[in-house]
Design goal:
CATH class: Alpha Beta
Number of helices: 10
CATH superfamily: Alpha/Beta hydrolase fold, catalytic domain
Structural class: alpha/beta
CATH architecture: 3-Layer(aba) Sandwich
Distance between the termini: 25 Å
Order of helices and strands: EEEEHEHEHHHHEEHEHEHH
Largest sheet: 8 strands, mixed
Strand order of the largest sheet: 1-2-4-3-5-6-9-10
């Protein structure tokens, strides 16, 4: 399916301006929430597949894409309030929330805070409890290994994308016109004419501290139909690492990271015993792009049940 052409608009809520996309459709409202660093455009191929049965929207959180970049407000309470006011502005009384990656925090926090506003929850490889990830990452034998990157000063979007793909093979291997569009909404040009990431380091730090390292999931008291995808895949290491370093990482992944992933799934299932869990072997974190058909079919079955 090709990239679509949705309505792009803004809402002024909670003291800031937030960007969103509207693919139209009729029926219950389905709102997609982005992972860290992404904009609503990341769903521009996947989301419109649901417009035959749902009104489909995607929201770009503060500090990302075309939304505002305030100096504060990167905590679960404020981000949840952003979503609630967004729904109020569009006169959406109740919605299905589907969130990717970091949005897992927003899904759980919103459902716990405003359960009457949620019809269903869909976690797209979206963890809502990451407090133990720091301790796990500190066991990674490659954590202090620095891979030298070529210095560059991209003066065009094409040069920026080429550098991005060179430095992060994980994204290069799944690149498409969708990513060209997504990246174009996440960069700016500085005074020297150099393309750079829009999101300041200070905002990234606040998100990491408030939503990843320090967020304890709020208890959801109401039983809400829930579907959660987990994509499991060992990262492909670049040839910049030595054979010894690769072997050490293989052991870490097998003995530490994989058991921890199984623990996270079990922990989520304990908190949401009614949830449907879909584990995608050899999956990709952007499962709704790379494993699109699988995710689409499971979501559609869940949504229409």
């Amino acid at each position: 399916m090709n990239v679509s052409n949705p309505e792009s608009d803004f809402v002024h809520v909670n003291g800031i301006r937030l960007h969103y996309l509207d693919w139209g459709g009729s029926g219950p409202t389905l709102i997609f929430l982005t992972g860290m660093g992404c904009s609503a455009y990341i769903f521009n191929r996947f989301a419109p597949r649901f417009t035959d049965k749902f009104r489909v929207l995607a929201l770009t959180r503060r500090g990302q894409g075309d939304s505002d970049y305030p100096e504060t407000g990167y905590d679960a309470d404020t981000l949840t309030e952003d979503i609630r006011q967004f729904m109020d502005h569009l006169k959406v009384e109740k919605a299905i929330l589907a969130g990717h990656s970091l949005a897992g925090v927003e899904l759980t926090h919103f459902a716990a805070t405003y359960p009457a506003r949620v019809e269903k929850l869909i976690y797209l490889d979206a963890l809502d409890d990451r407090r133990e990830l720091r301790a796990i990452s500190e066991q990674n034998p490659l954590r202090n290994v620095e891979i030298k990157k070529e210095a560059s000063s991209p003066h065009t979007l094409e040069e920026y994308i080429a550098d991005f793909k060179r430095d992060i093979p994980y994204f290069a291997e799944i690149w498409s016109e969708l990513w060209d569009e997504e990246i174009s909404h996440g960069v700016k040009v500085n005074e020297a004419g150099v393309f750079m990431d829009k999101t300041p380091a200070s905002v990234e730090k606040m998100m990491l501290e408030n939503l990843i390292n320090g967020y304890a999931p709020k208890r959801v008291e109401v039983k809400i139909p829930t579907l959660s995808f987990y994509a499991r895949r060992k990262p492909k290491l670049s040839n910049a690492y030595t054979d010894e370093q690769k072997a050490a990482f293989d052991q870490f992944y097998r003995e530490v990271e994989e058991p921890f992933a199984r623990f996270l799934i079990s922990e989520f299932q304990n908190r949401f015993p009614h949830a449907e869990i879909v584990v995608i072997p050899d999956g990709h974190h952007y499962c709704f792009i790379v494993q699109e058909e699988l995710v689409y079919n499971e979501m559609r079955k869940f949504l229409l049940d």
